Amino acid sequence: MEKAGKEPEGEVFCPRCGSHRLYYFVGGRGGWIYECKDCGYHGSVVIEDSEIAVELREKWKQSLKNKEENSEGQK
């Protein structure tokens, strides 16, 4: 288990949408808090496995496509 306040090594990915556009905006003794520039996620949990991130990214894109199709069907 990593110590609180230690930044993960390597690339990190958003646990909601799988994006690599994840930036920390608060860090220190309590740990790191990240913000995703694609979906707006804010939190301390990140994905460090790129294979999982690719799967999340595909699911995220599909959910956006489904939402768009549903909203067009309601007009």
Automatic annotation (TrEMBL):
Protein name: Transposase zinc-ribbon domain-containing protein
Domain of life of the native organism: Archaea
